[in-house]
Write a structure and sequence with these properties.
The protein has about 160 residues and is an alpha/beta fold. The chain contains two helices and eight strands; from the N terminus they run αβββββαβββ. The strands form two sheets. The protein has a four-stranded mixed beta sheet, with no helix packed on it. β1 and β2 form a beta hairpin. The termini are far apart.
Length: about 160
Amino acid sequence: MKTSTVVVVVIIIIAVLGAGWYFLSNSTAPAVAPVGQTSAVNSAPSPTPASTAPMSATVTYGPNGFSPSSVTIAKGGTVTWVAQAGADELWVASNPHPTHEGYDGTTRDQHCAAGYKGATPFDQCATGTTYSFTFNSTGTWGYHNHGNHSDTGTVIVQ
């Protein structure tokens, strides 16, 4: 065999071995856990951490609307709305206006009717100076003052 042929074969072998080494050294091998531990690949998913959001919040309603206009609470938490002196009448209701069906799917005409026995709606159903509601569904819930529906706010439930 000629010397030039041997050199070409050696170069090809070196190139193939080099490419193989490169691809094998850059691939991600599954993690191997120490004896007695479960590897991350085979372990059960870690539980979702509990929310660090507060369990309660207070929103005031005054001549300039709701303050703060957005609050965050944990699931099962309660928001209390309080009307300040000089404010319009307060009637907190789930969006959209005027049906108030955004939180639980029932309309104002259904859940504000005398004798309604369904789930507690996110709707004050009448004017007053304070209103509290416990949120048992996660999500972002818009609300408004039914008497002045341009005054709006948001409750984020985690």
